[in-house]
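Example record

The entry below shows one chain as it appears in the dataset: sequence first, then structure tokens.
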Amino acid sequence: MMLIPGQTLPLQLFHPQEVSMVRNLIQKDRTFAVLAYSNIQEREAHFGTTAEIYAYREEQDFGIEIVKVKAVGRQRFKVLEIRTQSDGIQQAKVQILPERVLPSTMSAIQLESLSRCQLFPSSKPVSWEDHCSPQWWQKYQKRKFHCASLTSWPSWLYSLYDAETLMERVKRQLHEWDENLKDESLPSNPIDFSYRVAACLPIDDALRIQLLKIGSAIQRLRCELDIMNKCTSLCCKQCQETEITTKTEIFSLSLCGPMAAYVNPHGYVHETLTVYKASNLNLIGRSSTEHSWFPGYAWTIAQCRVCSSHIGWKFTATKKDMSPQKFWGLTRSALLPRIPESEDTSNQDSSPLLCL
């Protein structure tokens, strides 16, 4: 799993070395590192995220000690040196990567004395419907970037690198994915907001590590917006051409968004995306409510109809009064976003170029 700052990571550990390591962490600073690998063939990781434990519980199952942990991603880091101890636990020397906070696009030409003339948050619309009003938004943008008339550049160019404008554009995309999304559930800080979006995007590790390397919220938001605009559907990562679902089917069951990390009884972490409909899948075995991540729903294993790769699960309600009656939980590691390539990059074997 590639951890994003602010993302919750559930763990269930039962190997003696891992249990001992977590116990030592609890007595110290409760912080450990999660290395970011762009693919399973990569031997060395160059980036990662620190994780802070905020919930810890020990249990015993048939005499086996089990540690259940919940941690949250904190800071990005660059790996300087890494070594493996005799017990198999890795230790690394890392450099914490700072967040570059860029000044306002108008700061170079707007006098500080004019800052009091800006539109105060209390004057902004309180509902999403009012906020979507073209008249209000045009008036607000005109007032915010009025100093652009003193330069040789148009105001729309400044808006492309304005954090607030980018956040509003991303929110519009998120509302297309989930019509029940509440703005109050999203962070107001551009840095936290950009990480929340990165954790919710159903992209593969190659794209996610690109977002993790970016040290500016504005650049990160521009890349995320580019991905959301270009991504039309999700395919089987093994087949690469078999379409599983489209972004219009994505919905959210929790305040965390449409995708969250869940751990199974064997300790494997699945980042699971919830969608209303999925295609080209075969169901394997009988449905079961045991260890279900969604109370009141029974799960059935789902595999790709073409290559039989594990894609996720179908969840079916056990009671008639539950809504939705059924949905699909797709694991991010089995999905590949379909992003059309431009003509000049169609012959190159590389990840899609993101707009910075």
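Notes for this example: The first helix runs from residue 16 to 27. Residues 343-350 have pLDDT under 50 and may be disordered.
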